[in-house]
Amino acid sequence: MGNHICIKKAWNEWSDTRFVKYRSDERIAKLIENPESAFHHMTYAMLQEIIPNYQGKRICVPSSGDNHAVFSFCLMGAKVTSVDISERQLENGALIAQKHGWDIEFICDDTMELSNIQSGEYDLVYTSNGVHVWINDLYSMYRNISRILKPGGSYLMYDVHPFTRPFEDRTDQITVVKPYDSIGPFGEIPRYTWRMQDLINAMISSGLNINRLEEMYAEYNTYWFEVSGEREKMTKEEIDKLYQWEHNPLAATPQWLSVYAVRN
User: Fold this and answer.
1) What is each CA distance from 263 to 58, 75, 208, 244, in whole angstroms?
2) First CA to last CA across the chain, in angstroms?
C-alpha cells in the first residue's frame, strides 16, 4: 500500500475512533467562547502581528486535522479553507460547521500537492501541530504552500520542535532512542521526524522569506503529556514537576517551534 493511501486510510479510521473527543460539545464550546485557545499563546501573538484584523482575509489550513484552527479563524472573521487528506476528518468538521452556521470551505487534497487549490489566493497559510510527520516531501509541500499564497502573503507553522525527536518521553532521565539525523520513515504507517534544517531549507527553497522563529519551552497546558491526555492520570505534584528541569530533564529543551515567513 502506498504512503498516501495508507495514511488516508488510517486517518479516516482514527477520525471516528481516537479523535472523536476533539469534536465534543465541550471542546467546541471552549473554542466558541475563546477562539485563541486553539493556538499556543506565542503562536497566537505572532498571528496577531501578522494579521491584526481577520475580517475578509482568506486563510488556508492544509492538513487541518481536528479543524480547531479552522473553526477559530472563522470565528475571528476570516474566510477559511480547510484542506485534509482524510475525507472523514473533513466530513466530521463540516458537520460541526453546519451545526453552527459557519461558512467554511472543505477540500480533500494532499498537502504536498494542493492540486485543488488555485495559485495566489490566500493572505495566510497556517499549519499546526502534527503536520510534518506525515509529509515525505517537504519541498513539494512548501512549493505549493508558497504557490497558493498571494504575493506578500504570510505562512505560519506551529509544530513539535525537531530537537525533541531523538528522546524518549520519560521524565526521570534523558534517554536517546535515535540519532537526530535519522528522519525515517518509521512504522507501518510511515512517519518522518524532520530536522530543523530540513524545515527551514524547504521553506527557503520555495520562495518564502523567514521573518521570525520562536522556540517555546514547556508551559502549563502546552506540554506533550497534557496534549496527549496523560494529564488526567497525574497528580498535581507530578504535573508541577513536569515543568522543572531538575525533575524532568526534557523541560530544559525546547518543546515547540513556530516559524513565520512571507512569500516573495
Assistant:
1) 15, 26, 5, 39
2) 38
Q: What is the DSSP letter of 36?
A: G
The string of pLDDT tens digits covering residues 6-34 is: 999 999 899 999 889 889 999 999 999 99
Question: Measured between alpha carbons, how far is 47 from 42 in angstroms, rounded to an integer?
Answer: 9
pTM: 0.93
pLDDT of 1 higher than 50: no
- Strands ordered across the beta sheet of 79-84: 104-108, 79-84, 58-61, 122-127, 149-160, 256-263, 208-216
Is 26:92 a contact under the CB 8 Å cutoff? no
Q: Residue 30: which of 54, 79, 66 has the closest Cα?
A: 66
